[in-house]
Specification:
- This protein has three domains: 155 residues, NAD(P)-binding Rossmann-like Domain (Rossmann fold); 154 residues, Dihydrodipicolinate Reductase, domain 2, CATH 3.30.360.10; 83 residues, 2-Layer Sandwich (Alpha-Beta Plaits), CATH 3.30.70.260.
- The chain is 36% helix and 25% strand.
- The protein is built from 14 helices and 17 strands.
- The strands form two sheets. Strands 7, 8, 9, 10, 11, 12, 13, 14, 15, 16 and 17 form an eleven-stranded mixed sheet that branches. Strands 3-2-1-4-5-6 form a six-stranded parallel sheet, sandwiched between helices.
- The protein is elongated and about 80 Å long.
- The chain binds L-homoserine (HSE).
- The site of L-homoserine has 11 residues, from helix 7.
């Protein structure tokens, strides 16, 4: 059969990994695809010493690849928003299929890209955009196709998990571990995307669209990073039987969909609590299958290349199929059209449990007042720990609450922080049991 001709745009960490995996495993891949997948052209800004480009046509202009009539599939690995968007839309306009690992591109411009691709009858595949080498997009889109998805919760930023893991196990400083993650090629070009939760929100946005059949709505995701998590909170959580993980969570509720990324206390015995280093894991609850878990390397050259090359295999198998019989981009027919029945809920309307840490003056009645404020908001306390005074006359108080609406918790925290006997802001970390009943 005719080979599938690929143009790779970008030869950085993932581009280099893709080039090498595709070259090294060419025979195995051809046996699976039923035809060879050949690299026709590579566009790169600078050379990657890991890649031997001997005999490969190269260019420094990515748009040359998008217009090259000898190319069937453009692999977009340049990253970022604008250049990638223009490149992908140009490739689509030229009738090319597209494979990308760019979560920012799909989360922010995916609706536009899928509409353009649908009009042209071409494939846009993006397995590498979520959780690196973990085939969660395909599992959710195809493997769980029988289910009504109830919730998705995952560790979907390898850098953040790497930092939390090493801070906890080695007591190392945040910046020190971040520098290591950057050297290993895990971190985004702008590392605030990792530590402030933006990268995880991109990925969660994509997962939620595939899970529930709604348009991509990155702008409505609540995003909170790990930069304010302290070692103190990690220790307190541990004493209470919890681990702090940075999670992306999306739940279906009667009122709409929750879409939120934030540090989260989860019971130590959950599998997600035991996912360490750069590994990612996503738990998905389907009404028929129950809870399922997808685990593996969430970043890095060859793990992400594994996902990109798997997408190329899918393209090779589907290239001759009538577009209307292909698997829809976001799992549902209608390219994520919005009928308004599942709005993304504002953060004030989400319901969860909370961990609170406050510093109080050691005086009679302070704890009683805090408990009263919580009760006034209908918030029930599940556990309370008052430590001995360690900072002058201030005592740390740790509280775990039952599930409540975020709006009520905001109000309670506002009142607690206004108390004369409470010092500084109240630390609030959300708590999820991630059990099968929720
Ligand atoms: N910076 C990302 C991460 C890379 O750390 O997970 C993979 O998307």
């Amino acid at each position: 059969m005719k080979p599938v001709r690929v143009g790779i745009c970008g030869l950085g960490t993932v581009g280099g990994g893709t080039f090498n995996v595709l070259t090294r495993n060419a025979d195995e891949i051809a046996r699976r695809a039923g035809r060879p997948i050949v690299i026709e052209q590579v566009a790169h800004r600078s050379l990657n010493p890991e890649c031997d480009l001997t005999g490969i046509k190269t260019t420094t202009d990515v748009f040359e690849v998008a217009r090259n009539p000898d190319i069937d599939v453009l692999v977009e690995l340049v990253g970022g928003y604008e250049l990638a968007r223009e490149l992908v839309l140009t490739a689509i306009a030229n009738g090319k299929h597209v494979v990308t690992a760019n979560k920012a591109l799909i989360a922010v411009h995916g609706n536009e890209i899928f509409h353009a691709a649908h009009e042209q009858g071409v494939i846009v595949a993006f397995e590498g955009a979520v959780a690196g080498g973990v085939p969660v997009v395909k599992s959710l889109r195809e493997g769980l196709g029988a289910n009504r998805i109830e919730w998705v919760a995952g560790i979907i930023n390898g850098t953040g998990n790497y930092i939390l893991t090493h801070m906890r196990s080695e007591g190392r400083a945040f910046e020190d571990v971040l520098a290591e993650a950057q050297a290993l090629g895990y971190a985004e070009a702008d590392p605030t995307f990792d530590v402030e939760g933006i990268d995880a929100a991109h990925k969660l946005t994509i997962l939620a669209s595939i899970a529930y059949g709604v348009p991509l709505q990155f702008e409505k995701a609540y995003t909170e990073g790990i930069s304010r998590v302290t070692f103190d909170d990690v220790e307190q959580a541990d004493n209470l039987g919890y681990t702090i993980k940075h999670l992306g969570i999306s739940k279906r509720t009667d009122a709409g969909l929750e879409l939120r990324v934030h540090p989260t206390l989860i019971p130590k015995e959950r599998l997600l609590a035991n996912v360490h280093g750069v590994k990612n894991a996503i738990a998905i609850m389907g009404d028929a299958v129950g809870p399922t878990l997808y685990y593996g390397a969430g970043a890095g050259a060859e793990p992400t290349a594994s996902a990109v090359v798997a997408d190329l295999l899918d393209v090779a198998r589907d290239i001759a199929t009538d577009h209307h019989y292909r698997v829809p981009y976001l799992a549902f027919i209608g390219i994520g059209d919005d009928d308004g029945s599942m709005p993304i809920l504002p953060m004030e309307d989400i319901v969860t449990a909370y961990y609170l840490r406050l510093l109080a003056v050691d005086r009679p009645g302070v704890l009683a007042r805090v408990a009263t404020i919580l009760a006034e908001q209908g918030i029930s306390i599940e556990a309370l720990v008052q430590k001995e005074a360690t900072e002058g006359e201030l005592v740390p108080i740790i509280l775990l609450t039952h599930r409540t609406r975020e709006k009520n918790m905001n109000e309670a925290i506002r009142h607690i922080e206004s108390m004369a006997d409470i010092a500084g802001p109240v630390t609030r970390i959300r708590v999820e049991s991630l059990d099968e009943q929720e």
